[in-house]
Amino acid sequence: MTATDPALTALAQGWCALSLLHGRIEAHIERALQTGHDLSVREYSLLDVLSRQHNGEGGHLQMKQVADAVVLSQSATTRLVTRLEDRGLLSRYLCPTDRRGIYTDVTEAGLELLEEARPTNEAALREALDEAAKNPELVPLVRVVESLPSPA
Predict the structure, then answer these.
(1) Is there a smaller number of Cβ atoms within 10 Å at the N or the C end of the chain?
(2) Euclidean distance between CA atoms 66 and 90, whole angstroms
(3) pTM of structure
């Protein structure tokens, strides 16, 4: 393949469109969450991921799993956890079966903030997708996002 190969050009254009859509959505949600709840998109995502943990088998996530879920490095995730812990939104404790493991849970204050912020996140996402759908290059991507099934 060469740089002028039509397939490569289409692939590159598709990637650019996806990147553009992601950036616009994230920026729109970021503004809404910061304004309404003093939360960043990453902080909201971390609270959301950790709020889905449970006490059953495999119910608690290791830091690498959390980092993967919020699309950050482990060190950046640890710093984010520390910031939210300092705000009283998260707590850490030792794993009862493996003293080397540390778990992170959302506090009651964190759960309350997450529930307050969830409608803002949903509304901002809807607004961002509606705005993106006005751009013909982004319409197919918006349709794909809207057609994805909800996780079980």
Answers:
(1) C
(2) 13
(3) 0.87
